[in-house]
Design a protein that fits this description.
Immunoglobulin-like; globular; 3 domains; single chain; binds copper (II) ion; mainly beta; binds 2-acetamido-2-deoxy-beta-D-glucopyranose
């Protein structure tokens, strides 16, 4: 009798395990209370917008295949939305989050439930506010573990640590961007960069205690989940006297490569392995981040740092930790575009049997050539206002000479309910309005057009897109981010894209697959994606200042014929404008 029960129990356990590994998904519930919180940095107390009073915000942790449900409640004076950056949102565009693109904002006192599943993705991503400049303090990691029982394609790390890079202003950033949009000139630059919310010792007397410390043991491997949540700056990152092995970018495994320095644009995420030294060194090591800046405007030229500290377990009092020499990493000069090219070339999809190689679309249905860069637009409000650009203009930014104007209602709602009239038009140009030397001397007329234009694509169109930087007001690297899709980075180059020669260099075998790519300063990048996700998908520069200036557009992907190729109706609590 006993043995029979035992046997039954064992069988149940086994069948439970089998069932569980076949359907190992779970629903992860989170509540985000958006509220103000006082924090002190650089000797100064400041009231900032936070999730649950935390800065940086809480991590969302899930497994591939899980459903994530986040109830966001707005207790602050600002309109809000949250974006799950890099999550594909397959047929769940209502949960994507960019304000006035997929939803109206969550207004003061309102709430909205973001509800989506994570399909075919694993790695590091992040969430952030997607309205005005509120993402300056509203951001946190998204950690997607592989399915249960599926190992990483690299040795299991001893510990995993998110490192979020941010940008800090002493002043109120909403005032800063509003002031810039009024005057037509560049917004004030930040006062510091941060690592996990802390600027580190290089700033002033207070900042030494505002330092993130990572305590490590010798002879172990750590997985650092690097996230660039800064508003306006690409960053170089390095750890003194340690190599880093890049294993993943934008939640896609890459062919591992060793480097001393990582380049990461706002919107990108990069997983690196850090192997600690085998013996306790008599040194403390700095980890540092500073800007890669190519544009014409002033930039924040400071360095954020954090400390890598080896545990000294059997330590005698003769060697105080704070007496140890502090070793600094060396980082490239701020405008080292050669480094940027080389680093980006190294990022290649892994392509293992468990995580098959990049499924690059081999045939192309639609080709687009988009110029991205700065220019001028007339002073708004009929020019009554005095703008600080030349001849009463304001600095703006555009894609194919169209500086995007935010609508007053969400594009996705307008699309879904067939009410696009008066909201957007589908005549976004596939090519620039005229040809010129994009990276040479500027044309005589540098005034741009304004409008709310989109590209409409039938379901499952394969798209090839060349993004070409312009040097109209100085060449500049633009980290372009696409919502709703990963794309493949086929090639990048200097100067103007040459359609007769450059396609021969396209990598269709193992290109990087990601959601954000730096359009090289004074150069171009070619990408492909499969438009298999019905909805409205924002594409924009992830330098927030350029987004504010209009370097953004949207793709409308139509429903397919089958039931599982259609966008479902919106959830009942979708905010209204
Ligand atoms: C933040 O500090 C200000 C000024 O000291 C104070 O009035 C306010 O109540 C504080 N807010 C919070 C959320 O603690
Ligand atoms: C999330 O969406 C799924 C699928 O539409 C639905 O079954 C579920 O009830 C939703 N959950 C919440 C909390 O809204
Ligand atoms: C921006 O900087 C200028 C010059 O330092 C200053 O006068 C202005 O008040 C700043 N703007 C904001 C919103 O802090
Ligand atoms: C980093 O890697 C290089 C090249 O493999 C090697 O020469 C160097 O010793 C390594 N440095 C450290 C600190 O491990
Ligand atoms: C660390 O410093 C102590 C005291 O200066 C010295 O005795 C010891 O040998 C040093 N260890 C290493 C690994 O350099
Ligand atoms: C940035 O700061 C460094 C060191 O503080 C200085 O040497 C350099 O000239 C600065 N560069 C720019 C472009 O401001
Ligand atoms: C980078 O900046 C330095 C110092 O301002 C300048 O001398 C150099 O020409 C610049 N390099 C490039 C590639 O722009
Ligand atoms: C433009 O400025 C004039 C003179 O200052 C003023 O009378 C007029 O009301 C302004 N118009 C608008 C639309 O602001
Ligand atoms: C200034 O702008 C006005 C209208 O926007 C235009 O008519 C005029 O030609 C411009 N002047 C110059 C010098 O560009
Ligand atoms: C474009 O301008 C650049 C910089 O002046 C020059 O080096 C290049 O040769 C020009 N390209 C063409 C196609 O004219
Ligand atoms: C979508 O397009 C891809 C690539 O062209 C093709 O392999 C796939 O079968 C298509 N899927 C559907 C549902 O049409
Ligand atoms: C908040 O959003 C609503 C809906 O779009 C809009 O009417 C209102 O003006 C916004 N409020 C602020 C302070 O921007
Ligand atoms: Cu940009």
């Amino acid at each position: 009798m006993m043995s029979h029960k035992l046997l039954l129990f064992t069988v149940m356990c086994i069948s439970f395990r089998v069932a569980f590994s076949k359907h190992p998904t779970a629903t992860r519930h989170y509540k985000f209370n958006i509220k103000m919180q006082n924090v002190t940095r650089l000797c100064q107390s400041k009231s900032i917008v936070t999730v649950n009073g935390q800065f940086p915000g809480p991590a969302i942790t899930a497994r591939e295949g899980d459903r994530v449900v986040v109830k966001v409640v707005n207790h602050v004076q600002y309109n809000l939305t949250i974006h799950w950056h890099g999550i594909r949102q397959l047929r769940s565009g209502w949960a994507d989050g960019p304000a006035y693109i997929t939803q109206c904002p969550i207004q003061t006192g309102q709430s909205y439930v973001y509800n989506f599943t994570i399909k075919g993705q694993r790695g590091t991503l992040f969430w952030h506010a997607h309205i005005s400049w509120l993402r300056v303090t509203l951001y946190g990691p998204i950690i997607i573990l592989p399915k249960r029982g599926v190992p990483y394609p690299f040795p299991k790390p001893h510990k995993e640590v998110p490192l979020l890079f941010g940008e800090w202003w002493k002043a109120d950033t909403e005032k800063i961007i509003n002031q810039a949009m009024q005057t037509g000139s560049a917004p004030n630059i930040s006062d510091a960069y941060t690592i996990n919310g802390f600027p580190g010792p290089s700033y002033n007397t207070c900042s030494a205690k505002d330092t993130f410390k990572l305590k490590v043991e010798p002879g172990k491997t750590y997985l650092l989940r690097l996230i660039n949540a800064a508003l306006n700056d690409e960053l170089f990152f390095s750890v003194a006297d340690h190599n880093l092995t890049v294993v993943e970018a934008d939640a896609v495994y890459v062919k591992p490569f060793k480097t001393k320095i990582v380049l990461i644009t706002p919107g990108q995420t990069t997983n690196v392995l850090l192997k600690t030294k085998n013996h306790h060194p008599n040194t403390t090591f700095l980890m540092a981040a500073k800007a890669y800046a190519t544009g014409p405007a002033a930039f924040d030229n400071t360095t954020a740092s954090a400390i890598l500290q080896y545990h000294h377990r059997h330590h005698n009092s003769t060697m105080k930790l704070n007496k140890l020499p502090l070793l600094q990493p060396s980082l490239p000069i701020f405008n080292d575009t050669t480094f940027a090219f080389k680093f980006n070339d190294k990022i290649r999809s892994l392509g293992s049997s468990k995580f098959p190689s990049a499924r690059v679309p081999q045939k192309v249905d639609r080709r687009f050539f988009f110029t991205v860069g700065l220019g001028l637009i007339p002073c708004p409000n009929g020019g009554n206002q005095t703008c600080q650009g030349p001849n009463n203009t304001m600095v703006a930014a555009s894609v194919n000479n169209v500086s995007f104007v935010m609508p007053n209602t969400a594009l996705l709602q307008a699309h879904f309910f067939n009410q696009s009239k008066g909201v957007y038009t589908t005549d976004f140009p596939a090519n620039p309005p005229f040809k010129y030397n994009y990276t040479g001397n500027p044309p005589s007329n540098i005034m741009m057009k304004t409008g709310t234009k989109v590209v409409a694509l039938p379901f499952n169109t394969t798209v090839e897109l060349v993004l070409q930087d312009t040097s109209i007001i100085g060449a500049e690297s633009h980290p372009l981010h696409l919502h709703g899709f990963n794309f493949f980075v086929l090639a990048q180059g200097n100067g103007n894209f040459d359609p007769s020669k450059d396609p021969a260099r396209f990598n269709l075998a193992d290109p990087a697959e990601r959601n954000t790519v730096g359009v090289p300063s004074g150069g171009w990048v070619a990408i492909r994606f499969l438009a298999d996700n019905p909805g409205v998908w924002f594409m924009h520069c992830h330098l927030e200042v350029h987004t504010s200036w209009g370097l953004k557009m949207a793709w409308v992907v139509m429903d397919g014929n089958r039931r599982n190729q259609k966008l479902p109706p919106p959830p009942a609590d979708l905010p209204k404008c």
